[in-house]
Records
---
Amino acid sequence: MIDDDVVLGEGSRVWHFVHVSRGARIGRSCVLGQNVFIGANVRLGDGVKVQNNVSIYEGVEIEDDVFLGPSCVFTNVLEPRAFLEKKHEFKPTRVGRGASIGANATVLCGHPIGAYSLIGAGSVALRGTRDYEVVVGNPARSIGWACRCGVRLPAGQGERSCAVCSLRYGIEPGACRPLT
């Protein structure tokens, strides 16, 4: 079901039992898997892959080339109550370019997810992530850094190279950045 006032980018594919709500903007070459819900006014960048059973609620913005694993969950209110209207309390969540969120992970609203970061399957992210950061567990905790290609970088500080694609990174306390 595609509501009125929806933009569905060229080359995007929508599978069975999907609902895209009014005002949503879906970029080019996206894939919306089976049983996906896209809330009102949600923005998805180009090349986003949303696996089966994912709901992306109003207040969530997904940048280009993001992977959302099966049944991952986003929230948009920190203290929900069925008997109280809390739409005025929606907290925005931005998922940075190239990030991956694993199957059955939960992302609490109001915190940015860094570019090319990885949230492991089943993790509960109570805070945001930094660019290239890898977090796992409940609650999610940092276990290192990942290359743009998704491979974990060698532990430690200083210059590190990806074992698969050879991209180089500078790692210092609390930050990882690509080297040119």
---
Amino acid sequence: MQQLCIKIITMQLETKALIQELLTLSHQSTKVVTQFKSLPLEDLNFRETENSWSVLQCLEHLNKYGEYYLPEIEKQILSNPIQSEAKPFQSGVLGNYFANLMQVKNGQVKKMKSPKDKAPSNSTLNTLTIDKFLKQQERLIQLLTDAQAIDLTKAKTPISLTKWIKLRLGDTLRFYVYHIDRHIIQAQKALKAKTSQIKCG
């Protein structure tokens, strides 16, 4: 019988470096979306194809994730003891897999099917979607700052798909911020497609 070998991939990260990376990405996302506010609603609701998402649909999708993950992250930060000295974060097997799945590498975004409850609506959206996203970003940035004070390996959060699977908080933060980053890039591509259409027209 052929032996089945499974490669287990985890990694150890310095907490300060990890949080700094996530804060940098979060500030970048906030800056990009703030600039969206000055654009016409027609551009923000533009969809290149029937199956593609508009800028506002990308943000609505992120807002749905924020409604779940931000309270869960905050709950763990408040319920875990403050450390006198930050310990290195040890990523989990599943958490590292999910985080790497979300992370944009070399500008490449892997296409994935979104869960039905997190899919954006097909109706026309407005700038309230942007306002909600930016408020969630403010909360996220504060939570990332606060998270440096606790053990990101011991604290765990259930994932949105099922309460039975929990990820280490450090992996949840990586997954969540990387997920935002990939959809901001998707939103920028939707905007670029609209600009290209105007030029061709």
